[in-house]
Design goal:
Blueprint: H1 5-12, E1 23-27, E2 30-34, H2 35-47, E3 58-61, H3 71-87, E4 90-92, H4 99-105, E5 114-117, E6 131-134, H5 137-146, E7 148-152, E8 156-162, H6 171-182, E9 191-195, H7 197-201, H8 204-211, E10 221-223, E11 240-245, E12 252-254, E13 262-264, H9 265-268, E14 275-278, H10 286-296, E15 306-309, H11 314-322, H12 325-332, E16 335-336, E17 357-360, E18 374-377, H13 380-389, E19 427-435, H14 442-445, H15 473-476, E20 482-485, H16 497-505, E21 509-512, H17 517-525, E22 530-532, E23 545-549, E24 554-557, E25 562-565, H18 571-578
Parallel strand pairs: 2-3, 2-5, 3-4, 5-6, 8-9, 8-11, 9-10, 14-15, 14-17, 15-16, 17-18, 19-20, 20-21, 21-22
Antiparallel strand pairs: 1-7, 12-13, 19-23, 23-24, 24-25
């Protein structure tokens, strides 16, 4: 039986065969920590007396908050700089741009290589024919100390794009169409390979746009075949093959709140906008900059609106300067920021205020992700056209006179501090919370504005304060409570705090119908008990008293006198749990 791309990459970096479902150790070629996760990586290493496996393969990238305009970000960056000086670790500092893009553009990793980062969109490396994955700080600390980390070999979905989009449709429109068809968890737990004549025609920039949104489909990675790297065997075995029709595809857009809530731009044309953002790891490349320059040349941003443009790397920024694009942007009235992630991780540019309506070229528009406003997701061309018009539109339908501006407001407040933490036994009993929602993302669990918090005792108070209807969860939850949730719980970011906040509150176990891939790793590695039980949200009522055995998976509803079964701890999960976490001796 032949091998898929991810199986070949894994086998080239392991002493084991990469059979689907196996858990094997993978050698990591490039090991990256960013400015918000880097301080926790340093903390984990120093608290566990761990040294670096290979400083030459180890990097810091300061791309979330290049200006250091947040005091805690600035403090974390300095912690990382001090560690780097002591250990001869290279830093791509605040003047360089997005770390995953630098890894590609600086040829730090080769096609077929492996990269881990505290960036949940490290899977953009799939565009380059390499493997990349975002991870929590414990995983990264382990990779820094030992040069390798465990992976469960995923099955692969083969995606075939059929047809040719309209000339007005860009790679972002294509990936939004993929997201519309596959949904927020359509690739959950899977790697994917992507094929088709359209795929073959794409530049690296276009491939990066598509690869970067694997995370929004729940996928581990979307791999593009590379002539310089690995290709799948002709008889490779796939979980399934998915054909997506993009023939004649028009510009697409995601409605606020859910990246997968995709429709044609025509369906929402005319919706008033206040601001726009062009950048992120998805759309801050040179192709994107040139596309918006064509739209903005000789035009002005609509009065009362703002357009924020952030190239992904300093090299791209300088190329924009050399080609005269920066002048076009500035003449149009746009704000051009230093290279970096900008709005995606509560950075210095791209945030929205209460009631603000924005159109963004980013990869996520979760509630609260880019501030308190409502965020549409679209291609850079659609963003630029909409900000010239003052309403959502396409580049071929920009009117001569812009729409008058509209403004609204919203307000919210954080929850009260709770500082308890808990160690759970192999079996637990407690009151149950049932949240029958799917795709609860990490911004709903633990919002990105709290990412600079490193003290677990401070985290519990912010749990679910961005999940509608559960803003008071942190105040009402009791030590020993059990949480039951729907599918794809913890999708989105790689932030460890989205797990640790439950430990801070003393939640004894989280039982989900399925977990986001990174979230599952983070929970296992931090010894937070998690179990998977299909359909469990429809079987148990809130406030019931449960007994749960982690080793057998037995769930007893003591209130109803019924029993159910979850998948018990795996051997690896039980071993990590018993020693108190991945990094514990």
């Amino acid at each position: 039986m032949g091998k898929t791309m991810i199986q070949k990459i894994f086998e080239n970096h392991s002493e084991s065969e990469a059979n689907v479902g196996d858990i094997i150790d993978i050698e990591i070629d490039v090991r990256v920590a960013r400015d918000f996760g880097g301080a926790n990586v340093v903390k984990n290493l120093e608290e566990n007396n761990l040294s670096l496996d290979n400083p030459k393969k180890t990097f810091f990238t300061f791309d979330c908050n290049p200006g250091g305009c947040d005091q805690k970000y600035a403090a974390n960056q300095h912690i990382c700089r001090l560690f780097a000086r002591r250990n001869n670790v290279e830093i791509f500092d605040i003047n360089r741009g997005i770390g995953t893009h630098i890894v590609i553009d600086e040829d730090i990793v080769k096609p077929g290589g492996t990269v881990v980062s505290t960036d949940s969109h490290a899977n953009i490396l799939g565009a380059y024919g390499a493997f990349g994955q975002g991870m929590g700080d414990r995983d990264i600390a382990h990779a820094w100390a030992h040069g390798k980390v465990w992976f469960k070999v995923p099955p692969t979905v083969k995606i075939i794009l059929k047809g040719t989009p309209l000339k007005s449709a860009y790679p972002k429109d294509v990936v939004l169409k993929m997201l519309q068809d596959l949904g927020a968890n359509g690739l959950l737990g899977f790697a994917a390979e992507i094929y088709g004549d359209y795929v073959d025609s794409l530049s690296l920039d276009g491939k990066i746009t598509i690869a970067s949104m694997a995370t929004e489909m729940g996928g581990i990675i979307i791999l593009f075949p590379s002539k310089d790297g690995v290709i799948a065997d002709e008889d490779a075995e796939y979980e399934r093959t998915v054909e997506i029709d993009i023939d004649g595809l028009e510009p697409m857009i995601s409605r606020p709140g859910h990246p997968e809530d995709v429709t044609s731009v025509k369906d929402v044309s005319g919706a008033k906008v206040d601001s726009g953002f062009i950048g992120s790891c998805t759309n801050g490349r040179m192709d994107d900059m040139r596309a918006i320059a064509k739209i903005l040349k000789g035009k002005k941003i609509a009065p009362g609106r703002i357009l924020k443009i952030v190239p992904s790397t300093d090299k791209i920024w300088k190329k924009c300067l050399d080609e005269g694009l920066i002048k076009i942007f500035k003449d149009a009235g746009a704000l051009v920021g230093s290279a970096g992630c900008a709005g995606c991780a509560a950075g210095q540019i791209g945030q929205t205020g209460p009631g603000e309506v924005a159109v963004s070229s980013g990869n996520r528009n979760f509630v609260g992700k880019q501030g308190k406003g409502d965020i549409y997701l679209a291609s850079p061309a659609t963003v630029a056209a909409s900000l010239v018009a003052g309403f959502v539109t396409t580049e071929d339908a920009v009117p001569e006179k812009p729409e008058p501006v509209a403004i609204s407001s919203v307000k919210s407040s954080p929850a009260k501090i709770r500082k308890e933490s808990v160690e759970s036994p192999i079996k637990t009993e407690g009151r149950v919370w049932v949240i029958g929602k799917d795709n609860i993302d990490t911004d709903m669990i633990f919002h990105n504005r709290y990412l600079s918090i490193t003290d677990i005792n401070e985290m519990g108070q912010y749990t679910f304060d961005n999940l509608e209807g559960y803003e008071n969860f942190a105040k009402e939850a009791k030590k020993g409570d059990i949480l039951i949730v729907g599918k794809n719980f913890g999708c989105g970011s790689s932030r460890q705090q989205a797990v640790d906040c439950f430990k801070s509150l003393g939640i004894s176990v989280i039982i989900a119908e399925s977990f986001g891939a990174i979230y599952e790793r983070n929970a296992i590695n931090s010894a937070m008990p998690i179990l998977v039980a299909e359909g469990i949200t429809k079987k148990i009522d809130g406030e019931d008293e449960l007994s749960v055995d982690f080793t057998t998976g037995e769930i007893i509803d003591k209130t109803q006198g019924k029993s159910y079964h979850a998948k018990p701890f795996s051997k690896s999960q039980l071993e990590i749990y018993r020693k108190g976490g991945l990094l514990k001796i």
